[in-house]
Amino acid sequence: MIKYAFRVLWKNRFFSLLNIVGLTFGLSASIWLVLFLQNELTFDLHHPNHERVYRVSHVFSAPGVEFNTAYSASELSPMLKEEFPEIEAFARFLPLQVSEIFYNNQLLQQPEMFYTDPAVFDIFNVNLLSGNQETALSNTRSAIISKTVSEKLFGQESALDKTVKIDGNDMIVTGVFEDLPKNTHFTFEVLISGASGREWATRDGVFDSEVLWNANCANYVLFTPGTDVENFKAKFGPFNDKYFMPFGNKIEGSHTLRLQQLPSIHYDKEAINDDFAKGNPTNLIIFSIVGFAILLLACINYINLSTARAGSRAKEIAIRKVLGTNVSRLKATILAESLVQVFIAYILSIFVVWGMIAQTPLQSWIGVSFDFTLFENPVLLLTSLVIVTITGLISGLYPAFYLSKINTIGALKGSWTANKSSNFFRQGLVLFQFVISISVLLSTMLMKDQIDFLQTKDMGFSKDQILLINTSDSIAQSKYQVLKDALESNTAIEKVTSSNFVAGTDIGQIVFNVERDGQQVQQEFKFIHGDEDYLETFEIPLVTGRSYSGKETRGNQYFVINEKAAELLGWDDPVGKNLGFFHQEVPGQVIGVMRDFNHFSLHNPIEPLVYVFNPQPGRHLIVRFNQNRVDEALAAVRENWDQALPNYPLEYSFLNDRMNTLYEADKTQSKLIGAMTVLCIAISLIGLTGLTSFNISQRKKEIGIRKVLGAMTVKIVTLIFSSTLKLIIIATLIAAPLSYYIISQWLQNFEYQTALDVGIMALGCVGALLLTFVLVSSLVIKTARKNPVDSLRYE
């Protein structure tokens, strides 16, 4: 049976090759997609105790205030362990203010550094490559670093017992851990012992409830085996009343505890203000549907070609029946042909996927990272084999039943022809292929249009000529005024400022006291701070009032708010209104209103914002340079930096590049769908090539007669293409509204949306039409140009 299947494949090499190539594309996409889904759906499952580990998060509410935060007070976890025997261990991650490591007079800028607790080894799977887990973080001023950081600092030397300076203190490296997997919601590169304990929550022997409302670190707790977390939450009420609510009652507030199981965090639908990047389950559904569609297209190709060639195989099948082959065996033989081709395609797809992952920049282009280890990954191996088997059955079952029913007498007489229902079924499958391919093509084009819109939309401030220089170190900050004066004297540079916050990317959040209806009430605001040149540097205009002059003596004396803040507070004339920080006894005044600008990505609406004067340098030196003079500006920055800070490396980035990263997830989605679109179109065209070639081969005699009777090549092309044209028009009429609906739903993820461009949809439809026309025409023209004598002599 298998031998016969290979013989049939070899006899029909062209059509077999088309089938195998299409199936290879489909299976390659499916295997890669299984890897992608496995990577996404196993977030944090590599941690041994993941079922018992929970992140402690909170909702703090009060009139005018709501913080839904993934962070907690550092004092909370020790208190929980003291009060509740269900908590076996805890680990806190308190981020460092200055992410720098000094070693041998060399400076390494290193984000993702945290103070933590020794129990981190119980919470997360921190695999030490060197060092002792029991003692690595047991002493103060000890640090463990990732393998990548170790190689940056020490090369191939051992990192153990080396002394580095972090956060102004000498730290002993007591361990090197394996780099964390990419599919973890929370990553770290350096962990330092010494997170603060409960003692900081007590003042003069009295517990200060307010400290628990100051969320400053990520808290994770490990519950004892068998703990019912819901029962634990029920027991939390008295603790909440005792420790959280004394301050909560003062501000008429409330506190709600949230416990998030470790594996659920990545896809938690709760909108948390300061959470880490989350996955989008809708994307997984979309990718799965498109991946299934790609594989289905390959199956349709096989079914179409197999049934289309039924006439050429009719005599062969009839003779096998006459020679005694029963229908069941005949079905099994035809099904074996399908399975053989699918397994050949499977072997090829293994090499294709390996090549895509290991030998091409595909993954970095899309923005994902995982390894292809088929035989070391039983889930992938088993899933891929199941997909292959199902693909073989889907592809082969209909042809097996269809071909085995060929009438023996009619086939031997040469009078057997396919009935109308089979032709209708085949056309329906081709129509389905076109609907899928055009729908995915149009959706991809509309997605790209939205992402281009996000990257070019005016956000209310200048982002295209802004240079951000890292000045997080105190020594670098001490040179701020020297650098500012020197840089602003260069004609290539327009303005220089400094802040911890950068418009569009970094924004703070704090509670103010505001004047409303003659009283001072609390109100939460987003806020930024900077010196007197901050607004001018970002070209954020004032609507009314004035900005800072630089002569202010206190940062809480005057404030500038945005239009949204004035609207929220109901202030028709905001200038002169009282405004101050939460604990500020004597309020300051609003001196100006700035125009609204988008201080987050365009997924989010503009929120009320306060700009606070701060003459002290921040983590960013912000430079706005003249258009088309970026090289001169960079040269001036380097020269003046080297003069002011000769031993410090210059690290800079452009704001527009940084802001583009806000849409990385959208671009990844668009790229992935785009790659799948190419596959959909390629597989559909492969199938169309096979059907057209077979159709032409069956009509060679007709083409020859038409040529003899004087028909032009254009007329013959039009005749052959007319049936395909009808299918494309019908498919377009179905695909266009379908794509419109899909993208309309996808756009709900964005606060700012571009209008769905009908012109883009029309362009995509015309492109699909032209592509199929070129393909069909090239195949028909090749035959039509031949000498009609050869065509008529055929058969």
Care to describe what's here?
The chain has 795 residues and is α+β, with helices and mostly antiparallel strands. Strands 1, 2, 3, 4, 5, 6, 7, 8, 9, 10, 11, 14 and 15 form a 13-stranded mixed beta sheet that branches. Helix 9 (327-358) packs antiparallel against helix 11 (378-404). It folds into three domains: 2-39 and 280-453 and 664-793, no CATH class; 53-264, no CATH class; 474-647, no CATH class. 49% of the residues lie in helices and 18% in strands. The relative contact order is 0.11. The model has no long low-confidence stretch (mean pLDDT 83). Residues 16-235, 462-612 form the MacB-like periplasmic core domain.
Topology (SSEs and partners):
Layout: H1 2-11, H2 13-41, E1 53-62, E2 65-69, H3 76-83, E3 87-95, E4 100-103, E5 106-109, E6 113-116, H4 120-123, E7 128-131, E8 142-146, H5 147-154, E9 163-166, E10 169-177, E11 190-193, E12 202-203, E13 206-207, E14 218-223, H6 229-250, E15 254-261, H7 281-308, H8 310-322, H9 327-358, H10 362-366, H11 378-404, H12 408-413, H13 420-456, E16 466-470, H14 474-478, H15 480-488, E17 493-499, E18 508-516, E19 519-530, H16 534-537, E20 542-545, E21 558-562, H17 563-569, E22 578-581, E23 588-594, E24 609-613, E25 620-625, H18 630-644, E26 652-654, H19 655-660, H20 664-698, H21 700-708, H22 713-746, H23 758-784, H24 788-793
Parallel strand pairs: 6-11, 8-10, 19-24, 21-23
Antiparallel strand pairs: 1-2, 1-14, 1-15, 3-6, 3-14, 4-5, 4-9, 7-10, 8-11, 9-10, 12-13, 16-25, 16-26, 17-25, 18-19, 18-22, 20-23, 21-24, 22-23
Helix pairs in contact: 1-9, 2-7, 2-9, 2-11, 2-20, 7-11, 7-13, 7-20, 9-11, 13-20, 13-22, 13-23, 15-18, 20-23, 22-23
